[in-house]
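User: Quick one: structure for sequence A, then sequence B.

Assistant: Sequence A:
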Amino acid sequence: MSLQAAEAAQKGEVLRYIGTMENGKASIDISSVNSTSPFYSLDGSDNLFVITTERYKTRPIIIRGPGAGAEVTAAGVFADVLMAFV
């Protein structure tokens, strides 16, 4: 366990990769989040989008669903390799 993960766990938090897009600029970072964050309960390859606007500041729009995962990604890469020989 990394130091950052250990510090998060000690506070009852978890680490998540969180990307943001604001004013046309995108960034991604590893963030420590607590149980009040919608990112806290993500599991496995789940993806989550939180859309915050002027009208949805206090209760943002949340879209959650499965990500590709290892099996689907591997199958896609394998299919691409096979198509290169057709």
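Sequence B:
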Amino acid sequence: MKKIEAIIKPFKLDDVRQALNDIGIQGMTITEVKGYGRQKGHKEIYRGAEYLVDFMPKIKLEIVIPAERTDEVIDAVRGAANTGKIGDGKIFVIPLERVIRVRTGEADGEAI
């Protein structure tokens, strides 16, 4: 099993969710986060004063999948989240040792 963590632009969430639904991935956890990478924030003007916005709003997706679907999920997320501009995000792939469903006690593949 693998855990996919993807950091994407907020306005791409619906596109990514639809792309994952299209390949049969239905469960995910979504968190609103802030951060920066190469884009290093941007400047905004508020009431005539210029200030730097250091951390950009992003969405973090967490998806647990069978290991054999890793490339398929990565391709779906990358395709749907890509705008071709700086700040599109990152995808992290993390191995999982075990998954247990709290309600039933099912483990691993049956739990996802």
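Residues 70-81 form the longest helix (12 residues). Residues 2-111 form a domain with the Alpha-Beta Plaits fold (CATH 3.30.70.120).

User: Thanks, that's what I needed.
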